[in-house]
Design brief:
Blueprint (H helix, E strand, L loop, with lengths): L1 E4 L8 E4 L2 E11 L7 E8 L5 E7 L3 E4 L3 E11 L2 E5 L6 E4 L1 H4 L11 E7 L2 E6 L3 E9 L13 E5 L4 E4 L8 E5 L4 E5 L3
Antiparallel strand pairs: 1-6, 2-3, 2-6, 3-4, 4-5, 7-8, 7-10, 8-9, 10-11, 12-13, 12-15, 13-14, 15-16
Pathway: Protein biosynthesis; polypeptide chain elongation
Keywords: Cytoplasm, Elongation factor, Protein biosynthesis
Protein name: Elongation factor P
Length: 189
Amino acid sequence: MVKVIASSLRKGNVVEQDGNLHVILTAENVHPGKGNSITNVNMRRISDGVKVVGRWRTVEMVEKADVDDREYDYLYSDGEGHHFMEPATYEQITVPDDVIGDQKAYLVDGMKVHLMTFEGTALSMELPQRLTFEIVETEPVVKGQTASSSYKPAVLNNGLRVMVPPHIGTGTRIVILTDDNSYVERAKD
């Protein structure tokens, strides 16, 4: 365990509070106009999965656990969970649905992700920031709308719904941000 300042806590960090380990889901530093700055944290207790809210002054010291952050290859999903392999040692790890959450729509065979583990247990998964998918359903392209600032809904080949510019048609491969499902650009491949 290492003591760190509360304002440095980020998503995926593991902290010790009240004798239990917690993985941070969201962390936000709040600077009110008057008074001390605080860090608000939503976290999940590792032992039983209960979500907990933490609040510290930004200058307080917090116990941070040392987690193993490695790159893994996604293999497949089944009834047991989602299976990943560490490329150097070929060691496999199974990650349950509650750790992956709504990010499972992004998982594609062979994809490289970062898994944070503590004593052999997966705590959180970090996806690549940008991913490429194909549009399988959207409204037809209307001539003359290339410079419009409006967006139209589209369904990707992984089932996600995103908003795309009007000049993007069905069958086009696009790049999206995994943080908020937003359109970035047409894929260059």
